[in-house]
Specification:
Blueprint lengths: L5 E4 L2 E8 L9 E6 L2 E8 L13 H18 L4 H16 L12 E9 L3 E7 L3 E5 L6 E4 L2 H7 L3 H4 L6 H15 L22 E6 L5 E5 L1 H8 L6 H11 L1 H14 L15 E7 L7
Helix pairs in contact: 1-2, 6-8, 7-8
Length: 289
């Protein structure tokens, strides 16, 4: 699906945009739409030169899990947590005979899902992708799982003190990832979709009345950084940008900020650029007669 392509059904219109961190790297994000549902994943793994135990890679994992989730949500009205459990099992079965899925660096992904029924919106988030609901109030409702960020903040001081792009930063990033792998999918740590289907039970979920929501956005952390890392827009301003100019405009603003701070001096971060994906789903309000 091309960036900013509209997807329409009788009651559904979305705009999507996704962009890799670099033209020379595969996009490890995934976004897909089926009638009445949106799925967004942000793949995670190990940087080049580090062992992962998997011959397929992070982009493959994100695509496989995302497409499997889309198939599940199309075919079943089961709770979103159950659909994620099934999907993790399915994808694990595709490569457990060729790859070491017990390796701490095996590919994983964040998950954000939104499904609309006749009168409600069901949501699920796992790890640091974000769902924003515009309920018509001054500040929108932001649905996120901050366990990864809370754990990461405890171990990122050395990494944040070093300029991006230097050998020292690269080595510190590897050490940071090794430490974070030790906290992934463990009690007291953070949870992502990977090889263990039990991770799905750690998802944050909820339901809201559909008629209370004017629009929704799903963002990978490479897109949400305009607000939650750079502080260049409030969540309301970010939603307005999506509504007025579309998801590609959001990614363009993120890239501009990244280019202004290539070494992470103003905004310390593990990656100067990250894959960025955004989906915007407006809900037409009923007209008063």
């Amino acid at each position: 699906m091309r960036p900013d392509q509209d997807t329409r059904t009788t009651d559904m219109r979305l705009s999507l945009a996704t962009e890799p961190s670099s033209p020379s790297r595969p996009n490890e994000d995934f976004v897909g739409v089926t009638s009445g549902a949106v799925v967004l994943l942000d793949g995670a793994g190990t940087p080049g030169g580090m062992e992962s135990g998997c011959s397929h890679g992070v982009a493959w994992y994100a695509r496989m899990l995302g497409s499997t989730l889309l198939a599940e949500v199309t075919q079943s009205a089961a709770p979103l947590t159950e659909l994620l459990t099934r999907s993790i099992k399915t994808v694990a079965s595709l490569h457990d005979f060729t790859c070491d899925l017990t390796h701490p660096g095996t590919p994983s992904a964040t998950v954000a899902m939104l499904r609309r029924t006749d009168d409600s919106l069901e949501w699920l988030v796992l790890a640091d992708s974000v769902i924003i609901l515009d309920t018509g109030t001054a500040e929108p409702t932001v649905l996120s799982d901050d366990r990864l960020e809370r754990i990461g903040a405890l171990h990122r001081a050395e990494l944040d003190a070093l300029p991006n792009g230097t050998p020292e930063h690269t080595e510190a990033l590897r050490r940071y990832i090794e430490v974070m792998n030790g906290h992934r999918n463990r009690e007291g740590g953070f949870w992502t979709a990977s090889a263990d289907p039990l991770a799905a039970e750690q998802s944050l979920t909820g339901t809201v009345l559909a008629d209370q929501v004017r629009a929704a956005a799903l963002l990978s952390d490479g897109a949400s950084r305009l607000t939650d890392l750079f502080g260049l827009a409030t969540w309301r301003q970010l939603l307005d940008l999506l509504a007025n100019d579309g998801p590609q405009s959001l990614i363009t603003r993120v890239r501009a900020a990244e280019h202004e701070d290539p070494q992470g001096a103003r905004w310390p971060r593990p990656k100067t650029h990250d894959d960025a994906t955004a989906a915007f789903w407006p809900f037409p309000q009923p007209r008063l007669l």
